[in-house]
Amino acid sequence: MNEHTATDDRFDRRELLLHLGDMLEALSCSARKSKPTTLVAHLMQEEDSLQRFEFLRALAPKMTVTELTQRIAGAFFPWPKALLEAELNRDALASSVQHHLFDGNPDGWKAYVTHVQKTVKWFGTGLPGMKADASAEPAHDAAKDATPAVVPVMATPPATSDAPIEKKGWPWPEPR
After folding, report:
1. pTM to 2 decimals?
2. Tell me, what's the pLDDT at 166?
3. Per the structure, how many domains does the chain have?
4. At what angle do helices 90-101 and 65-76 cross, to 10 degrees?
5. DSSP of the chain, one letter per residue?
6. Digit-coded pLDDT (tens) for 5-63
7. Residue 109 burial by CB count (10 A; 0-12/13-18/19+): exposed, middle or buried?
8. Inside any domain, residue 3
């Protein structure tokens, strides 16, 4: 059992789903409004529609729209399934974002965590620190020679009996 397990985390799950929606909306807006090689920081200065996405300010200054697309996809694809699990793995949620979206950008990670913690107090706590990476250069420059990053897979414990697992609380309705 995860040491961070809360008895009622449905509001945190809701906030994280809303945040995921904001990430996808920001991604969609940046893809529609620019060329793939446009810097996200530059696009934010030009597009009023991106101003409400405070978390974009935490990104590496040289991140392009293409790189943002790749990194958001890598960071957030596990979230829907993870947020529906009976036991919320808080470290896995935050670690996915840390490694995919803020690799080599510890200052950006700290700013992002501060932003998310306005609504989800535990987000990002307990994760190891990050090292700075050559001013957080865009990954597309080094990606040609690099091998894909391996993301640790969290093992789920096997069921102890043949009885179906009863899911209680959000998103599963309470029994009447």
Report:
1. 0.71
2. 58
3. 1
4. 160
5. --TT--S--HHHHHHHHHHHHHHHHHHHHHHHHS-TTSBHHHHHHH-GGGTT-GGGGGS-TT-BHHHHHHHHHHHHTTHHHHHHSSS--HHHHHHHHHHHHSTT-HHHHHHHHHHHTTT-TTTTTTPPP----GGG--HHHHTTTPPPPPPPPPPPPPPSSSSPPP--STTSPPP-
6. 445 789 999 999 999 999 999 999 999 988 999 999 999 999 998 999 999 999 999 99
7. buried
8. no
Q: Which two tokens stand for residue 19?
A: 């945040």
The answer to whether residue 27 is domain-embedded is yes
Q: Which domain holds residue 51?
A: 10-123
Q: What are the CA-CA distances from residue 19 to residues 55, 78, 79, 110, 159 (Å)?
A: 10, 14, 11, 17, 32
Task: Identify whether 146 is part of a domain.
Answer: no
Confirm whether 98 is domain-assigned. Answer: yes
User: Which range among 30-39, 50-59, 88-97, 154-163 shows the weakest confidence by mean pLDDT?
Assistant: 154-163
Mean pLDDT across the chain = 80
